[in-house]
Specification:
It comes from Macleaya cordata (Five-seeded plume-poppy). About 75% of the residues lie in helices and about 0% in strands. By secondary structure, the chain is mainly alpha-helical. Helix 4 (about 60-85) packs parallel to helix 6 (about 115-125) and helix 5 runs antiparallel to helix 6. The radius of gyration is 23 Å and the shape is globular.
């Protein structure tokens, strides 16, 4: 394989080998992580009311059970992104799996409210590592059909939401919330059990100068897929730049102050701390994409989790705002399980739409059109509607927001270079968690106060701003190769 002077990159190797058995195994592992996160997030709809009833909590204490998870995710998304970019994707998702499983299982044994809050916050810290798994999987996929396979990866989230709704419907009436917490932690346990056979991302290894290790991973991919690697020597985008340019680029100077250090991947790795990574995200070449991405992630999380909460809140609005309406506690609990279960199936058409659009009309147009269509579905809900029409409108809105949520998790890793990919997505995800922390005030607080019009109006504003932000993204990533460095990304954009 060593023709002198002939080289190939990770993207060229993956394109030649195609998507095969090896990527299927990577998909199954990363998908299990997505199932774990979805189940831990969806159980918040069921555990809060059950714990409030058993322990006599106030409404503020009940909402705190949800808020601390998002607060933990805010910290975890940023932290694990930095760990993953500096020490490897495998290290990143190992720590997240340990946090999520151990804290999730121990939550089921919590003796009091204070310990439950601490443990659920730690679960959130672990769940913040979700972008690490998505970036890891992304870096094994050939560029030509990357969008379609990332949509398939996102289907594991929907599988997790439907599984959690089904589990809650079966477990809660018979065994209670502690069993639900314990059983929901098991997908994270599976991540730990199979961690030993997971490969490191060859793209990450190349950026750290470990091309021999990257080549061994690619050889394993070739054997498993029954394919062959390109002839020549494996190189990274960074090494190609060094061959083409004698002087250090602006990107290299930003990563390491001294010229000769730019030649050493190890030195570059040691320079990449959390603060410097954030500075790179806000550097002139990336600041526009970064700030717009933060807006979209905030709007997506605010809208997605808000719609999950609105599903039950709007259906029970008459019992809260009309004193003559009476519903038994058991009836309300049953309706809650049923409503969340039914509306979770709206995510399947959302995934189909994502798969149909993402590699055909592109990421930007797909996201913006679905944001604006979501606004149309929600507008009639500014006024009280019949129960059936409310369900239909929320179902349609859930389809749209699932589509945008799916595609933004494809687009976000594609716009950042490998050296800061998981940090960039992690920070954006952290901003999204702020939206998740705020949305209960709008979706629950205002509805409880019988301010449905104001609640829906605020959702409309956030979704409209998110769709508009998408239109201002500087470039489309459909069919583009992933870049390893900022300047290499600029070269690809210039070609377009």
């Amino acid at each position: 394989m060593g023709e002198e002077g002939v080289t190939f990159t990770v993207d060229e190797a993956l394109a030649k080998m195609g998507f095969g058995t090896f990527q299927g195994l990577v998909l199954a592992y990363a998908g299990m992580g997505w199932v774990a996160e979805a189940m831990e997030m969806m159980l918040l709809s069921f555990v809060g009311p059950a714990v409030q009833s058993e322990w006599g909590l106030s409404s503020h204490e009940e909402s705190l059970i949800t808020s601390v998870v998002f607060a933990g995710m805010l910290v975890g998304a940023y932290s694990w992104g930095i760990v993953s970019d500096n020490h490897g994707r495998r290290q990143g998702f190992l720590i997240t799996a340990i946090f999520t499983f151990s804290a999730g299982f121990l939550s089921a044994l919590a003796p009091n409210f204070s310990s439950l809050i601490v443990l659920r916050c730690l679960v959130g810290v672990g769940l913040g590592g979700g972008p690490v798994l998505s970036s890891w999987f992304l870096e094994f996929i050939p560029a030509a059909n990357r969008g379609t396979w990332m949509v398939i990866f996102s289907a594991f989230w929907t599988l997790g939401t439907v599984s959690e709704a089904s589990l809650a419907w079966f477990i809660m009436p018979k065994l209670g919330w502690r069993w639900l917490l314990a059983l929901s932690s098991f997908p994270s346990l599976f991540l730990l059990l199979f961690y030993g056979i997971t490969p490191e991302s060859p793209r990450y290894l190349c950026t750290k100068g470990r091309t021999d290790e990257a080549l061994r991973v690619l050889e394993s991919v070739a054997r498993r897929n029954g394919a062959e690697l390109p002839s020549g020597k494996l190189v990274s985008d960074h090494m190609i730049e060094l061959d083409e340019k004698c002087n250090a680029s602006e990107d290299t100077r930003l990563l390491s102050p001294r010229r000769n250090e730019a030649m050493s991947p190890k030195n570059k790795e040691s320079e990449m701390g959390g603060v410097s990574s954030l500075f790179i995200l806000l550097s002139p070449k990336l600041v526009k994409s970064t700030l717009l991405l933060w807006i979209v992630f905030f709007g997506n999380a605010f809208s997605y989790y808000g719609l999950v909460l609105l599903t039950s809140e709007l259906s029970n609005r008459s019992s809260q705002c009309a004193p003559t309406s009476l519903h038994s506690e058991n009836s309300q609990a049953t309706n809650l399980y049923k409503d969340v279960f039914i509306t979770s199936f709206a995510e399947f058409p959302g995934l189909l739409l994502s798969a149909a659009m993402v590699d055909r009309i592109g990421r930007k147009l797909s996201m913006s059109s679905m944001f604006f269509l979501c606004c149309i579905f929600l507008f009639p809900l500014m006024f009280h509607q019949s129960e059936i029409l409310t369900t239909v409108l929320l179902f349609g809105a859930r389809i749209c927001i699932t589509t945008t949520f799916t595609i933004v998790y494809i687009y976000a890793p594609e716009i950042y270079p490998t050296s800061i990919r998981t940090t960039g997505v992690g920070v954006a995800s952290s901003v999204g968690r702020i939206g998740g922390m705020i949305c209960p005030l709008v979706a629950v607080g205002l509805i409880h106060g019988c301010h449905q019009t104001l609640s829906i109006f605020l959702f409309e504003i956030v979704i409209l701003l998110s769709g508009t932000a998408v239109l201002f993204f500087p470039f489309e990533t459909k069919g583009r190769e992933l870049s390893d460095t900022i300047s290499n990304s600029e070269q690809i954009n210039a070609v377009e």
